[in-house]
Amino acid sequence: MGKRVEECVDLIIIGGGTTGLFAAYYATMREMKVMLIEAQEQLGGKVMQFLPEKIIYDVGGFPDISGEALVENMIEQAKRHQPEVVMGGDFVEKLTKVNHLFQLETAKGHIVTAKTVLIATGSGTFHTKRPSEWPNLPHSVFKESVPTTLMHKANYEGKKVVISSNSKVGVGWALFLEGLAKEVTLINPADKFLQVKDEDIDSLYKSKVKVYYQVEMTDFIVEGQELTHIEIKEKGATYCDGGE
């Protein structure tokens, strides 16, 4: 795609999470011309990636609300005054000051100028952490379907689930799915979990979740169109964990 120059907008918002969405609503309500840029395929940021079905209790005006419902409401609110929303794989590569304006260039070559830029990316765009040898592993078609989010817990009912994570997110989802999935295995490439409360670790050890430390996924074993095993490696030894 060739480069294009957009007309000058009042505000560019980088990040389409809950903060960026509310900023878009408030700015357009004040009759500002707004462009919101989100690198992911969906709006909602980490709430939609990690907390879609978790009940949230600390949002003003809602005694309790699921992450997914909260984001749906915020998207509807943000689009009320029709900001321009750019998403689906395009992200900001360069930002420079040109006279009294900001000039922004995206990975797809779009050039936009704005009076003001608001960075609402939180801790940054989330990308799935994969083994270093991932590109050389077989079953490329299957790898494309490996989820990077945990939407719709019903999809995991009665299945054997493998989660690879070294943080509280993996621990939280392992415990969340334990009573729903047939079996849950948690693979940690490190020797401990980060940012996890002691009580959550205690709950993990008391649960039926299988936990592996200092291991990495090395292969997916597929029979026909069905994943049957995941191969993991630890200190030269290799193990196979059955999957469905």
Brief overview, please?
With 244 residues, this protein is α/β, with parallel strands linked by helices. Helix content is 23%, strand content 33%. Strand 2, helix 1 and strand 3 form a beta-alpha-beta unit.
Describe it.
- Strands 1, 2, 3, 6, 7, 8 and 9 form a 7-stranded mixed beta sheet that branches. The protein has a 3-stranded parallel beta sheet with strand order 10-11-12, with helices on one face.
- 23% of the residues lie in helices and 33% in strands.
- It has 6 helices and 15 strands.
- The two termini are 41 Å apart.
- Strand 14 (226-234) and strand 15 (237-242) form a beta hairpin.
The amount of helix comes to 10-25%
User: Termini distance?
Assistant: 41 Å
**Main sheet: strands, sense, barrel:** 7 strands, mixed
Extended strand count = 15
**Uncertain stretches of 5 or more adjacent residues:** 236-240
Shape: globular
Following the backbone from N to C, one meets helices and strands in this order, namely: EEHEHEEHEEEEHEHEHEEEE
| Count of discrete alpha- or pi-helical segments spanning 4 or more residues | 6
Mean pLDDT: 82
Strand content is: 25-35%
Helical/strand content category: alpha/beta
Give the C-alpha Rg.
21 Å
